[in-house]
User: Fold this.
Amino acid sequence: MRCVVAIDQSTQGTKALLLSDDAKIIAKSYFEHKQLVSLEGYISHDPMEIYENVIKGVKTLVDAVPEAEISAIGITNQRETTVAWDGMSGKPVINAIVWQCSRAKGICKSLTDEQKAVISERTGIPASPFFPAAKMRWILENVSEARNLALQGHLCLGTIDSWLIYKLTGAYKTDVSNASRTQLMNLELLDWDDEILKMFGITRNMLPEICASDAFFGETDFGGILKNKSPILAVLGDSHAALFAQHCHDPGKLKVTYGTGSSVMMNTGSEIIRSKNGLASSVAWKLSGKTDYVLEGNINYSGAVISWLKNELGLIDSPDETEEIAFAANKSDKVYLVPAFSGLGAPYWFDDAKASIVGMSRLTGRAEIVRAALDSIGFQINDILIAMSRDSKLPIKFVAVDGGPTSNRYLMQFQSGISDTNIRVSEVSELSGIGAGFVAGITDGVFSFDMAFSTLKYTLYKQHMPEIERQSLLSGWKQAIKTVVYNITDCNL
Assistant:
């Protein structure tokens, strides 16, 4: 039986999926990795642990379905997390700097207004420590081994996809979707921008080759797990892979991926839309020689807010509890949570913002704080949808969504109401992995495009929140945002 392996390396862990020749998931595995937070608040992952979890994940699949013949491999990944390693030994020189980490904010502040304008215009992304460019410069400035390797011409700087490709195949490559999120790639040329590289003290030999999303990235047997080596034929950033799996292949179609953070992404086809409302422009993918672009807004804390309730506050034992608790919360309570634990991303881009709980009363208790945490996810995504509608000049009446938190009925109904739109939830939560698997399988001819998408099913949430309630909630959220952000302009609201 010809099968496809899809690796989904996310912020919290690594999923591995095995897709059959009829494009259905027949086995899956999941391994968490440690979230490393320093006393300075720096957020890191161990790149070797991530690589080892990929190996363990694939072994689990092979053990579960020993008759499977692995014809193709797809990889999708947390995008802006940055890895630095020795190109000769393959050893990391520092733990991976996670996309959420803001340790490089001083570097972004040191850029001139002219430099920031060039970065934004050519890469489609506002200057921010959220993206790898500043993280890479921070590594060069603060890690002596990295500087020494750079002088020798042996330093590799990349995102998680290029790290895994290197470890699995020995090739040093990335795809256009991941490269477009580094803040170093020229959107029009689909190549590293030499002027921007110079701003960050980076040279081309430190960076991987940029390839199409359906290119040949090398072959691997996952350290001897497979009997024969199989080709990696698909690499996409996790949000881009989810966009593909959500069938958002035409201009104007959009989806929201709820993960540790959240990504709102709209396909803009061959047109690069330069946002005037705090969003980023990126490459969706390059497939069959055709490049599609996207508008995107990212929030730092969505699913991570739920983890905070559990791990730091001890208010819940499991994320599954939040649905029932939120439904039971006192409707008269008007408390808001602004989860700016690492600043605020789109559409505000305010790195210095701090988290805040606003509007507490004697009615505020455990249930109300839990509900406010879920509401904060919906409010932040709605802010981005408003900005996206303004940039695209299109009304948003339908949103496809995916990710673990979409199983929360309270959150999905709230999202539908506060955004005044219908919400389509995929009944399969692993859409990023599926998207990468679909591209790999279609590229290799394991299954057809139509067969792949015929396997997906959905649940629909219809908008029924009264307009007066919606406007009251939005007004309260705007006031809460103003307590942590002091650079708000009208377009941000």
In short: The longest strand covers residues 290-299.
